[in-house]
Design brief:
The chain is 29% helix and 35% strand. The protein is an alpha+beta fold.
Length: 147
């Protein structure tokens, strides 16, 4: 099962919005949100909540791709998220997420008994390539209890 299939099965909101996982690797995750009239805002584009969910889902996909091998000892959790809306989004949009720190550095902190935090940057674009939103989600790997 791919990461996209896993997340679609485990996260009801992914299914609700019909998010599509186009690419999911430790280097980047790319998701799309189709143009759906039931999720449009007052100017005819995707609602801000749908765009936030798209971006957060892209960030979660890259975290799972990068740190899936650490799940036996840590749980990935978002800590903070912020989004900046740059241009009106109309039609389908695509979110591209990238890690803000090297995977090896984050795992080294986990190995040292720390709870690492790291940023994931997400760019959301229209089909014409215009950037409609920029998002940053700070994630952590919370070590599992040793009990």
């Amino acid at each position: 099962m791919s990461i996209g299939e896993l997340l679609a099965a485990a996260v009801p909101m992914v299914r609700t919005l019909n998010l599509e996982y186009l690419e999911t690797t430790p280097e980047r995750a790319v998701l799309s949100l189709p143009d759906q009239s039931e999720y449009r805002n007052h100017v005819g584009g995707p609602h801000a909540g749908a765009m936030f969910t798209l971006g957060e889902s892209a960030s979660g996909a890259i975290v799972l791709a990068a740190f899936g091998d650490q799940l036996s000892r840590a749980v990935p959790l978002p800590v903070t998220a912020q989004i900046a809306f740059k241009k009106i989004a109309l039609g389908p949009v695509k979110a591209t997420a990238t890690l803000g720190r090297p995977i090896a550095d984050i795992v080294a902190e986990l190995d040292a008994g720390k709870r690492p935090e790291f940023p994931v940057t997400v760019v959301i674009q229209r089909e014409d390539g215009a950037v409609t939103s920029e998002m940053e989600v700070t994630w952590t790997l919370r070590p599992n209890d040793k009990d």
